[in-house]
From TrEMBL:
Family to which the UniProt record says this protein belongs: Belongs to the bacterial solute-binding protein 1 family.
Assigned keywords, A-Z: Signal, Sugar transport, Transport
Region forming the signal peptide: 1-22
Protein name per its UniProtKB record: Multiple sugar transport system substrate-binding protein
InterPro entries: Bact_solute-bd_prot1 (IPR050490), SBP (IPR006059)
Length: 435
């Protein structure tokens, strides 16, 4: 029981930079899946009508609520199997949606399908609440329309070699930059990790000659949530969350420390959170920072054409953090074949296009990604380009405490010279992986 309570805290914590995205995140295909090819078969209604599915979802605003109901209506009217989806909206409530879903599920009142967060996977799979989707996906004619890395992330979340979540929409971190500052500093958009470090150095400038830095090269997030962009530095040196004490991981940590000690980031970086890094970038105080498409509209409103983006570049390794909203089918559903028709419609058919275009979330469908709407948007393009190497912070019993307390405290002490890179990484590794 103690283990389940701890994992529940992880599940309900909307990690770091991403927070809550709308009921799903989100342009066009029309082929229907032939569920007869799936190995999992379930008896459907024999009264001449197709099955009725209950779908629980959350929506961030009334426009998204209307959008989801319109998508449901279109699916109900166009699917050729007589399936009827009944959408029931619940508030996200700071993660309370997942708690409500879990409580209903263990009490025997689960819906057929629900929107879902990756971080909740271990709690639900440990209680055998989710349907295994391996056979469905293997026999799905649109399986290859989704990057294999996305499936791998689904497996990583479950801690198994199986998939229990159907991909829907994502938020992938990338680097925002100011083209005018790059031009003034005489640097090009980095294509390698070493070029990125050089760009941070060169875009740190005293523009008025008073001996004080006016523009810092990078907006570093040292407070809670900063573990996600920090992870890109660790992986770029060839390290990983799996072994934070490796030589490569320590080198990535040393890069992070050096950037701070050399004065390439604001001195407040040790306590800067989301609001601070965005404010520093929008005020022209920093040349680069890391976030996702959720802030792109505000950036364009502030800078017009003088803001753009690039994927975090590769070094010996490459990684960026991915936020998500997925869909799951419950093991208790008597209509799993029909449920897969619905979740696949949202993943790679018309529902995927309608949702992602309207909400501005990043589609998982390669076909949808190729639409001009996404390819002509540099922020979407940077997100899509990062999808093949995106990942998540490991979901463990220790993750919540590690994110909220251990990581920010340890990073602050390392940046301030109170701990070496080796010492800091030892603490971070033990804090994350201690069982």
């Amino acid at each position: 029981m103690k283990r389940l309570l701890v994992i529940t805290l992880v599940a309900l914590f909307s990690v770091g930079l991403f927070g809550c995205t709308a009921a799903s995140n989100s342009p066009s295909t029309t082929d229907e899946t032939d569920s007869s090819t799936n190995k999992n078969t379930n008896s459907e209604s024999d009264d001449g009508e197709g099955p009725t599915l209950t779908y629980w979802y959350w929506a961030d605003n009334s426009d998204y609520s209307d959008l989801m109901q319109n998508i449901i209506t279109e699916f109900n009217e166009t699917n050729d199997k007589g399936i009827t989806v009944v959408g029931e909206e619940y508030p996200w409530d700071g993660g309370g949606f997942m708690e409500t879903l879990f409580t209903a599920s263990v009490g025997g009142g689960a819906p057929d399908v629900a929107t879902f967060k990756l971080t909740s996977t271990p709690l639900f799979t440990a209680n055998d609440l989710l349907a295994n989707l391996d056979d469905y996906i293997e026999n799905w004619d649109k399986k290859d329309d989704i990057d294999p890395n996305i499936y791998d992330i689904m497996k990583t979340a479950s801690g198994t070699d199986s998939i229990y979540l159907m991909p829907w929409n994502t938020q992938v971190l990338y680097v925002y930059y100011r083209p005018s500052i790059f031009e003034e500093a005489g640097v090009e958009v980095p294509t390698t990790y070493e070029e990125f470090l050089t760009a941070i150095e060169k875009t740190t400038m005293d523009t008025d000659g008073d001996g004080q830095t006016d523009i810092y090269g990078f907006g570093m997030r040292g407070a809670t949530g900063g573990q996600e962009p920090w992870g890109s530095f660790i992986h770029a040196r060839g390290g990983s969350f799996d072994d934070l004490t490796s030589e490569a991981s320590i080198r990535g940590m040393q890069d992070f420390i050096d950037i701070y000690e050399n004065g390439y980031v604001p001195k407040t970086a040790t306590t800067d959170g989301f609001n601070e890094i965005i404010a520093n970038f929008k005020s022209g105080h920093t040349a680069m920072t890391i976030h996702h498409t959720g802030s792109s509209a505000d950036m364009v409103e502030t800078f017009g054409d003088d803001v753009s983006a690039f994927p975090f570049p590769a070094g010996e390794g490459q990684w960026t953090s991915m936020g998500d909203t997925e869909n799951v089918i419950f093991e208790s559903s008597e209509h799993k074949d029909a449920a897969f028709e619905w979740v696949s419609y949202l993943a790679a058919e018309k529902g995927q296009e309608d949702w992602t275009v309207a909400t501005g979330n990043v589609p998982v469908s390669k076909t949808v990604q190729e639409l001009d709407f996404f390819q002509e948007n540099e922020f979407m393009k940077a997100s899509i380009d990062g999808m093949s190497y995106a990942g998540i912070v490991p979901i463990k019993d220790t993750t919540t405490e590690w994110i909220n307390t251990i990581w920010p405290n340890t990073i602050a002490s390392a940046l301030l010279g109170e701990r070496s890179a080796d010492e800091a990484m030892e603490i971070l590794h033990e804090g994350l992986h201690e069982e």
